[in-house]
Amino acid sequence: MNTILMGCLATSICTALGALPALLFNRVTHRGKDILLAFTAGIMVAASTYGLIPSALKLSNLWILTIGTLLGTAVLTLLELLIPHQDLEHAPQRTDSGRTSIFLFLSAMGLHNLPEGLSVGVSYGSSNHDLGTIVALSIGLQNIPEGFLTALFLITHGLRRRTALLLATLTGVLELAACWIGLEFTASFRAVVPYGLAFAAGAMLFVVYKELIPESHGDGNERASTFSFIFGLLTMIALTHLLR
């Protein structure tokens, strides 16, 4: 249990660690943001396709994997439709609606963090003891650039640096809560673990292909973002291979 607690806490702490360097910057170039987002997307794709999906197949079959993945995609689609949110790249800069922009952006980060925390909790709840560590590591790695971009966005919209750091850290706390929910759910109902793994994979892939890739590849930085995506993918695969 101590290992599980440390893994869940580490993923959330990585968000705060990533936010710290943002306190030294007033802005980052559009190209830099795209590269960070693409790197994050690569890590999440590797976590889904190299960790969650194979584990779900190992514990069940193709039908369960398909159902769980589609459920994860459908739930994230509904949440996106029902919860007002605003993406990093499409948010206006300082205007009279700055507070609204901040609220909508934080809502978007919450949508991103829900499947991430869920995937960590479900992975720790599975019978594959190594999977939890691998998924926690992957989510922690991608939380570092995510925390940086979150804090930077808040600072450029006029919030004090300490306030920006606090709010960025709170998005990690939401992920920790989702991790606990995923762990408790799978611990009580072992039969749904494969569904949970596939659900988390589908939700994460939705975030990648609906949010991260379009945001990082739509403004003239496609080549650099593509290489960053591949580098993130290979980094996570290498770390997963070393841990097994």
From TrEMBL:
Q: Where are the transmembrane segments?
A: 35-53, 62-83, 134-156, 195-212, 224-243
Q: Which Pfam families match?
A: Zip (PF02535)
Q: Per its UniProt record, what InterPro entries does this chain match?
A: ZIP
Give the record's membrane topology.
Multi-pass membrane protein
Which locations, inside or outside the cell, does it occupy? Cell membrane
Record keywords, A-Z: Cell membrane, Membrane, Transmembrane, Transmembrane helix, Zinc
What family is it from? Belongs to the ZIP transporter (TC 2.A.5) family.
What is the recorded name of this protein?
A: ZIP family metal transporter
Q: What organism does the UniProt record list as the source? A: Paenibacillus chibensis
